[in-house]
Amino acid sequence: MDVAILADAVQRGERRALARAITLVESTRPEHRAQAADLLDRLARTGRESIRIGLSGTPGVGKSTFIESFGLMLVAQGLKVAVLAVDPSSKRTGGSILGDKTRMEQLSRDPRAFIRPSPSRSHLGGVARRTREAVALCEAAAFDVILIETVGVGQSETVVADLSDVFLLLLAPAGGDELQGVKRGIMEAADIILVNKADGDLKPAAQRTCADYAGALRLLRRRPQDPEGFPKAMTVSALEVSGLDKTWAEICHLVDWRRAQGHWQASRAAQARHWFEEEVRQTLLARLAEPRARTLMQALSAQVSDGRITASRAADELFSRIWPEMGGTKPPESLDAARDTP
Predict the structure, then answer these.
(1) Which one is the CATH code of 1-45: 2.40.110.10, 1.20.5.170, 1.10.10.10, 3.40.309.10?
(2) Please, are residues 287 and 297 in contact by the beta-carbon 8 Å criterion?
(3) Is the pLDDT of residue 25 over 60?
(4) How far apart are alpha carbons 33 and 38 in whole angstroms?
(5) For 230-240, how does the pLDDT look when each residue is reduced to its tens digit (9 = 90+)?
(6) What are phi and psi of 156, to 5 degrees?
(7) What's the half-sphere exposure (Cβ side, CA atoms, 13 Å) at 56?
């Protein structure tokens, strides 16, 4: 693969090239990782910035329906929209359905839209490990808006907030009370809470739920990166396409204010630092999957299970054997099996 040619094609906005580039950065093969790093280095110099919108919510709340209606509204305004949808992977087989593109049938046919489902591969937090790189690729391809849809997540899974400029949380009508709105975690990280399905018989319940959360949000301490009135709660109906234009107006207002106040660049710099540290952690975990490390772990694990060594002492020994520069305690005499490991 010629990385230079691929990078040029991505910058020209070629959809097939973008799909190939995302496949490359998601690959775990060592030779592909080197090519992916080269590709990302080349595209990092484009200087392009999209509005990254993270979208989370429990399963069945209507995230895909909302994204299709919202995306169609944006492309009708002449904007280019990329959707990165993360599907949960099976712990038994490792497979994923990747059916979000089927759900967004109208949006997927629009030439100004790009939809890419990716497996989570058991990565925690509601997103895939390489979602950040996929976001960077879509940004280099000159998409105006990038929507990042998580798997259905719970209270504590807020990783998507570290990928986005604006974080939307979708809730279902009658899904909680004021106490839920002041709980720390995903509620606290949200910029806008959208109570979806505010239509038909559910409309009164949606309005009550929105009022509950609006009252609860007023009890939270105001964040320095928020203008007056944020975070806020609103009702929308993806089915009837109501409230979406107002949601977009609030997003634009929030983005403009953060840019003017300097919070936009500060947030992106903090996110870059966060993902550097995360990449270091993931690289260390990958090293532990290498044959020598796995053999040593099995030997130490057997002795931990027999009670001949504590878990903390075994961990110190593991790291001192694999990476001597990281130190570690002196191994006890009972580690004969571990010492014999090549």
Answers:
(1) 1.20.5.170
(2) no
(3) yes
(4) 9
(5) 999 999 999 99
(6) -100, 0
(7) 27
